[in-house]
Amino acid sequence: MEVDREDGRSQNQLRPLACSRNNLHRAHGSASWSQGDTKVLAAVYGPKAGTKKNENPEKACIEVIWKPKTGQIGKLEKEYEMILKRTLQSICILTVNPNTTTSVIIQVANDDGALLPSAINAACMALVDAGIPTRHLAVSICCCVARSGLVVLDPTKLEEQKMKAFAYLVFPNSVHSVLPEGSPSGQGEPIQNGIITSVTHGIMSVDDYFYCLERGRAASTKLSDFLRKNLQQQSTDSSKAG
Amino acid sequence: MENKKSSSPASFIDSTVVPGDVVLDLSSMTNQTIKLGGGLRQDCDAIPAMKAGTLRFSKPNKYWVESSQKRYVPCVEDTVLAIVVDSKADNFLIDIKGPALAFLPVLAFEGGTRRNIPKFEVGTLLYLRVVKANFGMNPELSCTDANGKAAEFGPLKDGYMFETSTGLSRKLLSSPTCPVLEALGKKLSFEIAVGLNGRVWVNAASPDTIVVVANAIMNSESLSTAQQIIMVEHLLKNIQ
User: Fold this and answer.
1) Which of A2, A88, B120, B236 is most buried when burial is the number of CB atoms within 10 A of its CB?
2) What is the pLDDT of residue A226?
């Protein structure tokens, strides 16, 4: 079943991705991520000494502040902050710097659909730029289910509003490993088959959800490759000097 | 896509690794005693990377991920440029751009006794050596070298301090001399102190020289050797 998307993309096609790191002079790590017209800027400060009142001092604490493009901070922003905090807590290795706080500030520059996934991608790249130790990267994608039952990836804002349901999915990145494939690594399945976060809106059937997961996981490998290329480019740029 | 790499660790050395990449497999290595530097951690028999950077190897058995950050991870025997934040009865509280404040014991000076404790104001810039950097504890610093002599450690007077990334600090301290410092040294005379925590202090007779040296160093981060020399020539032309 073919679907006519306004910008001519196919079902599984992502919008053009752009990512740049180390944009902000004062922040310890920063990244700007854009998917089509959606643009998000993430800044990371830390690790700084001391944790907040109710946090466990034996682990590092991650604090997220979400700044919308316009308007006051309300419940939606607080929800995004909570989702982002729990996602980042699961990818960061919290025991490396106990009793410290790392602040992640997300500034929405433009919202054209798939805002939370873009923010998660930007935050992850900013953490890498700041040198915060992480277990692996988080790669995030938005899948939506149209009224016709078709599953579409990376919607624009107009598409999102017309959809029956959508899901924000966050997967670990695909890793290069010296371990031979299929070796028992202690856990049951290799980490690539895991999922970090899933946020759904609207009504969709269980089969649709699993189909979204499958499409999302396939797209996450493309995003992983993009991240890897981006990190390689910037490291070869700086290694040319001296 | 997962690439099937042969299980020789040489395949990742000097290439970029991303957090999560398993760079070593202990079960397939004969010499099982290896030293892991920054950016690597142990997960049973696999060694995944924690930071993005270039994997480096030094014989016989040292592996680490080389990356450049704005914050500093304290290591023993590093020389750092630190700023006094507060002073307590037994220690000075010092900021070294790390995850925790560091302590400088009040007696860690050459010939230091309870009677001649130096008085550092808040904001004093000091050139110090890291003595202890244990997990979960505040790092400890000292104003003497390992033998107890002053050896140029201590407060830095006058001059100008600016912040850089840790990668640039390491380049400035590498031997042979960094090209930008060599090119500047041929025409100008200045004094410089580089802290491995990403701070650099410059002092010279005239403010013009200080500004030129600081700008040259800050610009040189992403330039190659030839580009650095050309950049320095441009800057020097403007002041002459």
Assistant:
1) A88
2) 93
Round to whole Å and give the CA distance between B81 and B134. Answer: 19
Nearest to B162 by CA among B219, B201, B206: B201
Q: Which of B155, B182, B216 is the last residue of a domain?
A: B155
B42 near A CB under 8 A: no
Residue A203 confidence (pLDDT) above 80: yes
Q: State whether B174 and B150 are in the same domain.
A: no
Task: Determine the structural domain holding residue B46 and report its residue range.
Answer: 15-66
- List of chain B residues whose C-beta atoms are within 8 Å of the C-beta of residue A238: 68, 167, 221-222
Q: A100-110 and A151-153: which strand pairing? A: unpaired
CA separation for the pair B23, B14 (Å, rounded): 11
User: What tokens appear for B69 in the block?
Assistant: 């950050």
- Beta-carbon count within 10 A of B20 CB: 23
Across the strands, what pairs with B203?
A: B191
Closest CB to A238: pick one of B1, B22, B68: B68
Q: Rounded distance, CA B18 to CA B1, Å?
A: 14
pLDDT of residue B13: 87
B39-75 pLDDT tens trace: 999 888 889 999 999 999 998 889 999 999 999 999 9
What mean pLDDT value characterizes chain A? 88
Residues of A in contact with B99 (CB under 8 A): 46-49, 97, 100
